[in-house]
């Protein structure tokens, strides 16, 4: 066991399956963990009143209720982290666990290696929170050998703003399951990087990560690329071809620009997602596939649904766990961090040589901060790469080659409305005016407008539909 100035990791295991817990609890105690085991919610509540725990492992199906009630009712100062354990896993259960912000989600029978890795991550997170260096987590010989998922997420997907920390947390929590994730964000916000981050954090990281752009392939070829084809199935099919589902076996499949997929193929994709099998073009055999799906779009899917360009049932199947990536203009505090990250990546100067490492001048950094970044993180990456080719040791504004943009071009929140004369505006008129002004300020982007208004996207669509009906009724009355 590693020496540590921290107390042993304290664990409460709540499970009525004595056959499962008996041997594992003894093993963990022998590895230096302080483990208490109880068999129902009442005993767990008493234990949490008497002691504080670093981790609570809780079964969902207990004799006196659901483990979720324990998670919901326990103050976080009594338990640092919760992990759900169940023998009856489902997408619905995984989503519920994620909503309760649990640290992880384990299926029975629990593997010893998986459990030890989990405890190591919890120990590492506790050490980091206490200000200790990596590797100081106590309790178990493997403690401190693995960084917590949140730390890895910030390394794979850089960003220190509140919006990006939320993305990192969501990806870290989703990584422990095979839940389908839908990434939404403007072009250039890093959706493929986020998908790859999710893959690297998951248990599928040893398998392939396959990216497929649904909008970049000819409609006549997309079925073959997705599902594969048999030899002789069409003119030019000279040999059997494996589709991307087969090529991603055991790993993660990233479907970018999913809303651009032809409507006639969306039903075939839905069938694959529901059955876990594919049938090649020209074939009659259903081939089992084991892939984790991550989809992405820079559009508003519900608008495509309303226009008949995207199936509603496929949308609901894909958006089980949605994650929104904020545009760079909404997280300006990340600009310096990202610029330094890309500079370190593109700087070709030998790190051990005598040449001075490249750096940004203060004027260059100010220039980066003033830019509104319509191309988001991808644009910043390209600007830094270009500057590395043009500059010497010091990157100045002239090396950035940024167009001059007025600060006023950036969208600003809607201005407060003045009350109308003649008794003031009615509440519904004020609501309509505020929503329409906000939508205009957001350039027509309903997702951003909903977020700025503090309402759901569905609520915004319903209100806009109601405004449309009111206006049509008023025009008819006139």
Beta-strand percentage range: 5-15%
Range of helix content:
40-55%
Query: What is the tally of beta strands?
Result: 16
CATH architecture of the largest domain: 3-Layer(aba) Sandwich
How many structurally independent domains? 4
Specify the overall morphology.
globular
Task: Determine the N-to-C terminus distance.
Answer: 83 Å
**Rg computed from alpha carbons, rounded to a whole number of angstroms:** 26 Å
**What's the helix count?**
20
CATH class of the largest domain: Alpha Beta
Any idea of the CATH topology of the largest domain?
Rossmann fold
- Low-confidence parts, pLDDT < 50 over ≥5 residues? 132-138, 140-151, 350-354, 405-425
For the report, how would you describe the main beta sheet?
5 strands, parallel
SSE-based structural type? alpha/beta
Strands in their spatial order, largest beta sheet? 2-1-3-6-7
Average pLDDT reading: 80
| Fourth-level CATH superfamily of the largest domain | P-loop containing nucleotide triphosphate hydrolases
What features would you describe in this structure?
The chain has helices at 18-30, 41-50, 67-73, 91-99, 112-129, 149-156, 162-175, 191-201, 222-227, 244-247, 263-275, 301-306, 312-318, 335-346, 362-370, 376-390, 397-400, 427-441, 446-453, 457-477, and strands at residues 10-14, 34-38, 53-59, 61-62, 65-66, 79-86, 104-107, 181-184, 209-213, 252-256, 277-278, 287-288, 292-297, 321-324, 359-360, 394-395. With 478 residues, it is of the alpha/beta class. The strands form five sheets. The protein has a five-stranded parallel β-sheet, sandwiched between helices. Strands 9-10-13-8-14 form a five-stranded parallel β-sheet. α7 (162-175) crosses α8 and α19 (446-453) crosses α20. The radius of gyration is 26 Å and the shape is globular.
């Amino acid at each position: 066991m590693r020496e540590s100035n921290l107390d042993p990791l304290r664990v409460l295991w709540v499970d009525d399956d004595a056959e499962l817990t008996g041997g594992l609890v003894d093993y963990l105690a022998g590895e230096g963990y302080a483990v208490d085991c109880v068999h129902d919610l009442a005993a767990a509540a008493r234990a949490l009143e008497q002691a504080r725990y670093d981790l609570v492992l809780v079964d969902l199906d207990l004799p006196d209720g659901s483990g979720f009630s324990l998670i919901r009712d326990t103050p976080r100062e009594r338990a640092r982290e919760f992990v759900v354990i169940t023998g009856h896993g489902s997408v619905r259960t995984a989503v519920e666990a994620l909503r309760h912000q649990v640290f992880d989600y384990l299926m029975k029978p629990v593997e010893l290696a998986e459990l030890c890795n989990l405890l190591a991550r919890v120990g590492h997170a506790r050490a980091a929170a206490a200000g200790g260096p990596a590797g100081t987590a106590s309790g178990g010989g493997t403690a401190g050998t693995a960084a917590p998922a949140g730390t890895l997420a910030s390394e794979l997907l850089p960003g220190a703003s509140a919006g990006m920390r939320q993305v990192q947390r969501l990806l870290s929590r989703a990584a422990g399951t095979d839940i389908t994730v839908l990434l939404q964000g403007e072009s250039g916000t890093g959706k493929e990087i986020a998908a790859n981050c999710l893959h690297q954090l998951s248990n599928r990281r040893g398998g392939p990560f396959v990216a497929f752009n649904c909008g970049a392939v000819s409609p006549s070829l997309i079925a073959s690329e997705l599902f594969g084809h048999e030899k002789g199935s069409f003119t030019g099919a000279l040999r059997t071809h494996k589709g991307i589902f087969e090529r991603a076996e055991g790993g993660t499949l990233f479907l970018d620009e999913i809303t651009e997929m032809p409507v006639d193929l969306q039903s075939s994709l839905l069938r694959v997602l529901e059955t876990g099998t594919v049938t090649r073009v020209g074939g009659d055999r259903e081939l089992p596939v084991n892939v984790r799906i991550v989809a992405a779009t820079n559009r508003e899917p519900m608008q495509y649904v309303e226009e008949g360009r995207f199936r509603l049932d496929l949308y609901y199947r894909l958006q089980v766990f949605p994650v929104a990536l904020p545009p760079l203009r909404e997280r300006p505090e990340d600009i310096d961090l990202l610029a330094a990250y890309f500079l370190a990546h593109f700087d070709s100067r030998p790190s051990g040589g005598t040449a001075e490492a490249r750096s940004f001048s203060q004027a260059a950094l100010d220039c980066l901060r003033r830019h509104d970044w319509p191309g988001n993180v991808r644009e910043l990456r390209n600007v830094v790469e270009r500057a590395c080719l043009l500059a010497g040791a010091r990157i100045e504004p002239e090396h950035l080659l940024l167009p001059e943009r007025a600060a006023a071009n950036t969208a600003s929140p809607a201005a407060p409305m003045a009350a109308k004369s003649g008794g003031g505006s009615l509440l519904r008129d004020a609501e309509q005016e505020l929503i329409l002004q906000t939508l205009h300020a957001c350039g027509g982007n309903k997702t951003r407008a909903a977020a700025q208004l503090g309402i759901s996207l569905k609520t915004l669509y319903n209100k806009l539909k109601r405004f449309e009906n009111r206006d049509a009724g008023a025009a008819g009355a006139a």
